[in-house]
Design brief:
11 helices, 426 residues, eight-stranded antiparallel β-sheet, single chain, alpha+beta
Amino acid sequence: MKTSFTQPYKQICILLFSFLCSSISGQEETTLPNYLGEESTNLISVAQNNMNKWNNNNEFNPLGNIIGIASNNFSVINENSIGHANIIENLLHVPAADLNELYFQITNEILNNNNVVLNEEEINFWNVFRRLITLSTAEVHIGKSYGDPHLQTYDGYKYDFHSVGEFTLTTNKKGNFDVKVRQEAVTSSLSINTATSMNVNGDTVGVYVKNYPDEFINQPIRVNGEVLELNNSTSLLDNGGIIEIKEKNITIFWPTGEEVLVTIARSTTSKFATTNFINVVSKVYTSNKGEYYGLLGNANGDPSDDLKSFGGEFIKPALAFYNIDDLLSKKKIKKKITKEEKKYNVNLVTEFGDSWRISNMSSLFHYVKNENTATYTNSFFPTKQFSLAQVDKKEIKIAKKECDLAGVASDEMMGCISDIIVTQDN
């Protein structure tokens, strides 16, 4: 699968403009939340003075909107409009040493200073503030669910997840970042993503390509239950998020840095006619290390603990059961591999996958009358497990040739071969 994320500089501009650089000209004074104590306001004043020397001739206020995001005050962002995305350049001109110094001042002089008494709002403000000033240089983790569905966790572990129902793909401990997916069956052994719905810092954004929540079946996007037309555009959400639409690619940006790309795809196959589905790619930052959980894992850098159930139990990750050479090897070896693979897949679906099924209370989807998450749940799926180890060698060779011609990378080859064989779609 190709991920169509923007190039790093452009991506940072689009994502971070709203909270790292204010478009307030003339150095207008930034309004601080009234719950900040004297030590906090003094540090902000010092930081602002230090930033002013890198401030492009005082045209912009480098810290204006970062304060708005940290205090959940998005009025300034929404008033400034999308047109000022390029002003992130002002922050990128600030030397890393200055940003690092500010980070350590927040940590040592405020958060870890026993002589400073902080209220809960103030602690949250500085935790968000500290995270935001590191985003332009932070390492990222990317996880994805695509095809029928193939999953790659934030830490790089890959597995196939052939279940039917609604699941938590990824969420964080705070709950302002939460992505659900709906998987529906296309054969007796395979499913695809047909919808996703997410909490974007308090706003609900959904994308549907089947079983729409209302009569508007030609419009896939819903924002807080209302239709958002699929036109090339960029829109601000009430709580600081951004939706960017380019053709069939819908990118949702969180004000706290996370990003999700939803791609609407269509497969026209001889096996199950025309089928619409979505691919979901999620991007999070290492500054939030260990704060995530769900089908995409915890983003702590260790793939060995990614298959953790909602209750905290770990499913042992499996090494690849076979590679291309294994698939073309002797039948006895293949049969042994198939037995091991089936056992692993059962545990993956039941012990791990079922624990991430959502409830009516935790669902972010909108439904038509008399429907809920139970409508889309099938705990007995798949009725049989698909395995490439059971496919004829000639069929595998033909599929591999198609994947090679398409330029599929080696780490995606097994998924590509599976998709072509199952869907009969090259």
